[in-house]
Amino acid sequence: LWQSPSDAALANAAGSKSYRRRKARTVFSDYQLQGLEKRFDCQRYLSTPERIELAAALNLSETQVKTWFSKSKNEA
């Protein structure tokens, strides 16, 4: 059954509790951090194949590597 956005908002306001759980924060190992930092020092931007390769080498997901690089660029 399709609901308009206003119908969905009313259902949520009426007490329907469908909260999305936030993904747990990633805790990187020392080995993973060293690998990420070493690569970041040499190269701030990774292509998709480079990101996939680094993620596989560090046993991380491509998204985790992408997010780490993005946040590191913002902090620099």
Automatic annotation (TrEMBL):
Organism of origin: Trichinella nativa
The alphabetical list of record keywords is: DNA-binding, Homeobox, Nucleus
Q: Where in the cell is it found?
A: Nucleus
The record's listing under PROSITE patterns reads: HOMEOBOX_2
Keyword check for Cell membrane? no
Q: Single GO molecular-function term? A: DNA binding
* One annotated Gene Ontology cellular component of this protein: nucleus
Q: What is this protein called?
A: Putative homeobox domain protein
Annotated Homeobox domain ranges read: 19-76
